C-alpha cells in the first residue's frame, strides 16, 4: 500500500495516464472462471451500454475491463451519452480524439472496489484514474432521495457485481475537469469581485500555474454586495484603507485573499470537518471548521467562554473539483481572525492511508500490518506497526472508536516512531499520551520529543500506577492530574460508574470499578509542557528505552496550559467531546431509571 506523493498535481495526472495506457497491453492472468467480467457485461447489454462499449473500443481500453482486478466503473448509459452530446461541442464519439476519449474513460474508472455502502456525503476515498476524486451525495428530487456523483450524474443502478469489480450505472457522463481553479473562478460571473482580488494580488497566477493542489473558499458578488461592497475598490478600501502595495505578502488585502486559500492542501468539505482546522496561505494563520447540524461553519469558535459566530459554507455549491484542486463557495465572507491556542484531541489512527483501505478502518477484523513507508505522516525504522480495528483486543471498547496502533517500541525492534501532528496554533500546551497499558514487568518505557526537544517526563505504560484500582490510592482525579495522570475518555456503557465530580476520591474509585478500567489499563500520561513556535504541523517522536511488550497508542491531547486538562472527555463510541455537565445529566437520567 506504499504511496508516493508528487510535488505537482499535474505530474500525478500524467503518471496515472501513463499507467492506464500501460495496463492495456500486458499479459493478464489466465482466466480461471466464467463469471462475467465488466467489459463482457457491457458488451452483453447493448441496449444500455452500446455507446460505452464504442467509447472503450475507440480509446483502446476494453481489454483493461476484461482483465482480472479490483475495479469500480461508473457506467454511463446510452441515454447519458445522448445527453452529453446534446450539451457539448461534440455530436458523436467520432468527433473526439483518442486522448479526449481516454480522459472520459479515466474519469469513470477507479482502481478499487467501492460498493455503495461505502458512499458518504463527500468525496470517495480513492481517486479515479485521472487522479481526481469523485464526490457522492444524496439529493431530493420530487420528494425522492437520489444518489448522485459530482452532484449531477444520477445513479440508476448500483452494485452490479462482476468478477473483476463493481458497476454503478449513471444517467450522465461525468465531465473531466480540465480547467484550473483560477480559470473556473474567472469564468463564473458570480465571482467578478473575488476574481479581481485574485488578479490584483497575484494569487490568480498561483491558482493557475502554481504548484497545487489548492483549496479555495470563493466569495460570490452577492455576499460582497450584501455587506455594502459593489466593487473590488470598495472591498479594498475596507480591508486596506491605506491602499498599499497589493503584491506585498504582508499587505492586508494580499493577506485577505491568501486567507481564503489553504496551504497546498486538497480538502473537500468532509475532509475539512474531519481536520477541524486548516492552514492557510497566510503565515501562521488557520481557519477552524465546525459542523453545526447539517451546516459547516468557518471560524465558529468559543474563546474565554464567549461564542464567536462562524461563517457558513454553501455545501450545495462546494466540493467543485478543478484540475488543480477543489473550490468551495461561501454564503458569508470571513476575515483573518486573531487566533489563540486551542485544544486538539488527536485520534492518532486517523491516517488517510488506513481510512482508504476498503472494509478496514474502524471495522471488526484482523490487525493490519503496516511497514515503514506505508504512512505519509507517521515514520519509523525497524519492524512493522499493526493497526487494530474494532474487536482487536479486550480493552478496545475503552479506547476511542475501538481502534489503536500496536507498536513494539523498544531499541531492538522499533527504536523510534515520529508523527506529524495536526495543525497546532502557536502557544503553550501540555501534551498527554493516551494509551492502553501493558504488562507491568515488561511494559514499554520511552521518551517523548517535540520538534527534537526531549520532554521531561518518561512515559511508562505499566497499569500499576497511581490510577490503579487495586492500589486504592485515595486520590481524586485532580490529585491524579497533579501526578501526571488522567482519565481521558468516557464509555457510555459505564454510566453506572461515572460522575462529574473530579475532586472526590470515592468517585475516582467508582470510575476505576468500570469494567476494563478496573485494571487501569487505559489512561493518559503527561509528557510535558511545550511551546509551539509557529502555527502548523510539528514533529512528535517517541524514542524507546526498554520493554518487551506492545505499546498500544490511542490518542494524543494537546491542551493549552491555561485550559482544563481533564474536561471535556472523549466519548469512546463516537469520538465526540463530552462535557462534565453532559455526563452529570446522563447519570441523573440513568439513576432515575434504575
From TrEMBL:
<dbReference type="InterPro" id="IPR000782">
    <property type="entry name" value="FAS1_domain"/>
</dbReference>
<dbReference type="Pfam" id="PF02469">
    <property type="entry name" value="Fasciclin"/>
</dbReference>
<feature type="domain" description="FAS1">
    <location>
        <begin position="36"/>
        <end position="174"/>
    </location>
</feature>
<dbReference type="InterPro" id="IPR050904">
    <property type="entry name" value="Adhesion/Biosynth-related"/>
</dbReference>
<protein>
    <submittedName>
        <fullName>Uncaracterized surface protein containing fasciclin (FAS1) repeats</fullName>
    </submittedName>
</protein>
<feature type="domain" description="FAS1">
    <location>
        <begin position="178"/>
        <end position="334"/>
    </location>
</feature>
<dbReference type="InterPro" id="IPR036378">
    <property type="entry name" value="FAS1_dom_sf"/>
</dbReference>
Amino acid at each position: 500500500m506504499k504511496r508516493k506523493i508528487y510535488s505537482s498535481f499535474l505530474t500525478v495526472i500524467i503518471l496515472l495516464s501513463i499507467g492506464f495506457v500501460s495496463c492495456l497491453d500486458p499479459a493478464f492472468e489466465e482466466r480461471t472462471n466464467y463469471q462475467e467480467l465488466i467489459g463482457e457485461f457491457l458488451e452483453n447489454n447493448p441496449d444500455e451500454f452500446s455507446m460505452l462499449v464504442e467509447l472503450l473500443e475507440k480509446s483502446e481500453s476494453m481489454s483493461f475491463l476484461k482483465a482480472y482486478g479490483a475495479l469500480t466503473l461508473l457506467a454511463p448509459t446510452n441515454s447519458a451519452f445522448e445527453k452529453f452530446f446534446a450539451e457539448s461541442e461534440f455530436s458523436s464519439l467520432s468527433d473526439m480524439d483518442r486522448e479526449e476519449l481516454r480522459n472520459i474513460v479515466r474519469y469513470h474508472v477507479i482502481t478499487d472496489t467501492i460498493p455503495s455502502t461505502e458512499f458518504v456525503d463527500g468525496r470517495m476515498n480513492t481517486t479515479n484514474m485521472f487522479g481526481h476524486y469523485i464526490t457522492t451525495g444524496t439529493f431530493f428530487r420530487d420528494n425522492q432521495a437520489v444518489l448522485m456523483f459530482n452532484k449531477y450524474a444520477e445513479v440508476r443502478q448500483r452494485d452490479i457485481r462482476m468478477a473483476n469489480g463493481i458497476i454503478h450505472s449513471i444517467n450522465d457522463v461525468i465531465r473531466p475537469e480540465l480547467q484550473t481553479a483560477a480559470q473556473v473562478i474567472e469564468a463564473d460571473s458570480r465571482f467578478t469581485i473575488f476574481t479581481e482580488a485574485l488578479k490584483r494580488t497575484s494569487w490568480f497566477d498561483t491558482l493557475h500555474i502554481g504548484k497545487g493542489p489548492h483549496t479555495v473558499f470563493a466569495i460570490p458578488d452577492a455576499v460582497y454586495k450584501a455587506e455594502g461592497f459593489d466593487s473590488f475598490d470598495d472591498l479594498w478600501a475596507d480591508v486596506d484603507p491605506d491602499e498599499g502595495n497589493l503584491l506585498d505578502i504582508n499587505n492586508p488585502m494580499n493577506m485577505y485573499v491568501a486567507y481564503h486559500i489553504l496551504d497546498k492542501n486538497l480538502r473537500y468539505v468532509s475532509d475539512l470537518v474531519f481536520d477541524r482546522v486548516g492552514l492557510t496561505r497566510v503565515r501562521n494563520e488557520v481557519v477552524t471548521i465546525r459542523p453545526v447540524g447539517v451546516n459547516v461553519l468557518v471560524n465558529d469558535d468559543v474563546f474565554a467562554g464567549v461564542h464567536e459566530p462562524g461563517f457558513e459554507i454553501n455545501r450545495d455549491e462546494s466540493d467543485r473539483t478543478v484540475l488543480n484542486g477543489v473550490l468551495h463557495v461561501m454564503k458569508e465572507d470571513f476575515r483573518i481572525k486573531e487566533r489563540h491556542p486551542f485544544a486538539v484531541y488527536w485520534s492518532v489512527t486517523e491516517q488517510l492511508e488506513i481510512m482508504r483501505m476498503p472494509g478496514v478502518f474502524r471495522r471488526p477484523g484482523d490487525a493490519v500490518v503496516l511497514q515503514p513507508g506505508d504512512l505519509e505522516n507517521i515514520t519509523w525504522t525497524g519492524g512493522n506497526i499493526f493497526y487494530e480495528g474494532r474487536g482487536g483486543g479486550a480493552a478496545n471498547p475503552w479506547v476511542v472508536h475501538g481502534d489503536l496502533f500496536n507498536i513494539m517500541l523498544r531499541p531492538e525492534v522499533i527504536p523510534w516512531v515520529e508523527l506529524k501532528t495536526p495543525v497546532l496554533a502557536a502557544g503553550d500546551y501540555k501534551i498527554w499520551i493516551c494509551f492502553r497499558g501493558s504488562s507491568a514487568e515488561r511494559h514499554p518505557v520511552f521518551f517523548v520529543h517535540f520538534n527534537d526537544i526531549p520532554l521531561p517526563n518518561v512515559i511508562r505504560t505499566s497499569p500499576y500506577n497511581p490510577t490503579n484500582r487495586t492500589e486504592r490510592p485515595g486520590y481524586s482525579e485532580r490529585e491524579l492530574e497533579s501526578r501526571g495522570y488522567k482519565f481521558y475518555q468516557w464509555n457510555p456503557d459505564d454510566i453506572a460508574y461515572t460522575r462529574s465530580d473530579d475532586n472526590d476520591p470515592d468517585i475516582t474509585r467508582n470510575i476505576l470499578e468500570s469494567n476494563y478500567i478496573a485494571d487501569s489499563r487505559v489512561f493518559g500520561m503527561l509528557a510535558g509542557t511545550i511551546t509551539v513556535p509557529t502555527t502548523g504541523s510539528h514533529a512528535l517522536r517517541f524514542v524507546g528505552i526498554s520493554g518487551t511488550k506492545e505499546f498500544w497508542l490511542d490518542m494524543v491531547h494537546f491542551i493549552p496550559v491555561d485550559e482544563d486538562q481533564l474536561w471535556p472527555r472523549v466519548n469512546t463510541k463516537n469520538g465526540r467531546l463530552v462535557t462534565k455537565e453532559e455526563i452529570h445529566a446522563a447519570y441523573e437520567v440513568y439513576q432515575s431509571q434504575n
